[in-house]
Amino acid sequence: MNVFIGISALITLLVVAWLVRPLLRKPIGNGISSEKLNAAIHRDQLRALEADLARDVISQQDFETTRDELQLRLLDDTESFEASPKNKKKSFWTAKRTSVAVGLSLPVLALGLYLQLGTPEAINPVAAGNANNEQLVQMVDTLAARLKDNPNDSKGWAMLARSYKALGRFDEAQQAFEKAGDFVKTDPELLIDHADLLGVLAGNSLVGKPQQMIEEALRMNPLHPMSLMMAGVASYQGGNYQQAVTYWEKLLGLLQPDSSDAQQVQANINDARAKGGLSAGASNALPPVPAGAAAGMTPEMINQMVDRLAARLKDNPDDLAGWARLARAYKVQNRLDEAIAAYAKTGKLLNTDPDLLTQYADALATRDKSLQGQPGELVKKALAIAPKHPMALMMAGQAAYQSGNYAAAIGHWKNVLSILPVNSPDTDLIKAEIADAQLKMGSAGKP
């Protein structure tokens, strides 16, 4: 406890010193004006915009419109509104007086807030950790007792299974998952949790039943990050390095490029390529991003550009191609409700573009976790326009599988195989889905 008090006092003094030092230091010019800073920021944005034009991410018209906006905003931002120093009046709160007030009041305020809001007994980490753990165990045991009186509460059993798994009580977690029954199959998160548990119980191996559950989760949500990660692990463990790379490259496209997760996934891809003797390939289907654009295009700038496009479309609601671009941008950002609303405004363009129809269907299916209903109808329209459209055929197979029409699902997926390149990395995955559907169809035919 004495150590905690000493450290707290030292931190408080350091904060006081940090706050007081600028008040006591004489002001000096830093040589950087707000006008120069704003100009530099706008130059970066303009370079990023030019890079997008070079990559064909935006059209020439959008480039010119956005460039004009940047230049107008630069004119506004570089106007000076600084007050003349001759008109400034002397204040009672000089720098020295302010520093004394801060130095005296901050420690007193910090102590008062700690006594009012803090928990002194939590200074002992062992006691606090034991108390929290005991409270968690008690809550889990209470849930288990309640389920004994309500054995048909599948959702409750699933919750209990995840709680047992978090506590490391794996055998009890498996029993709870079994009692949750088919409810687990309604949610990819639950399927992945159960598959992970089975993998742990099998000595950290995902081959076999865990892999089948992972594939089921991906059929429900083809872009589920954890499912993609574990599917890659299962393929890697089974020696199918090409398929592992395929899963992980899809996952990489969903991650922030500079994040630690993306770096780890890229390392996994490199390892799988080395193990399988595979040639290095593009990590995603998007065109490469120039280094200058990567440095200038922050998530905030991307959001600003998307929001500007949305604002322009409010004034130009008949720009159907603009609504399509906005819908795709929202979908990439995982803003599904906004993407769906934008797709709905593409009007006649939607009825003639199979790519747009399948993207719209995928957004609806991702949000609603089902291809039944409107998503399925959109896929049918896409196939009516382009009967050999790979993504539409794939989604039609998934819709048929979800509805229990395994024969139709097999037919759609065989059509996909017939149009894929010979060495396509998706071939093995589709064959596995066909085999699973054939197995389900055979089981359904038994008395």
Characteristics:
single chain; 447 residues; mainly alpha; Serine Threonine Protein Phosphatase 5, Tetratricopeptide repeat
Q: If you had to describe this structure to a student in words, what would you say it looks like?
A:
Helix content is 71%, strand content 0%. With 447 residues, it is mostly helical. The chain starts with a helix and ends with a helix. Mean pLDDT is 75; it is low at 28-34, 75-91 and 281-297.
What is this structure, in a nutshell?
The protein is 71% helix and 0% strand.
Protein topology:
Elements: H1 2-24, H2 34-54, H3 60-77, H4 95-117, H5 125-149, H6 154-166, H7 170-180, H8 188-201, H9 209-220, H10 225-237, H11 241-252, H12 260-276, H13 291-296, H14 299-315, H15 320-332, H16 336-343, H17 354-368, H18 374-385, H19 390-402, H20 406-419, H21 427-445
DSSP strand count: 0
In the CATH scheme, the class of the domain at 295-445 would be: Mainly Alpha
Helix-strand sequence: HHHHHHHHHHHHHHHHHHHHH
CATH architecture of the domain at 295-445: Alpha Horseshoe
Average pLDDT for all residues: 75
What is the helical fraction, as a range of percent? over 70%
Shape: globular
Structural class: mainly alpha
Q: What is the rounded distance between the termini?
A: 71 Å
What profile does the largest beta sheet have?
Answer: none
Report strand %.
under 5%
- Total helices: the number is 21
The low-confidence parts are 28-34, 75-91, 281-297
CATH topology of the domain at 295-445: Serine Threonine Protein Phosphatase 5, Tetratricopeptide repeat
Evaluate the radius of gyration: 29 Å
CATH superfamily of the domain at 295-445: Tetratricopeptide repeat domain
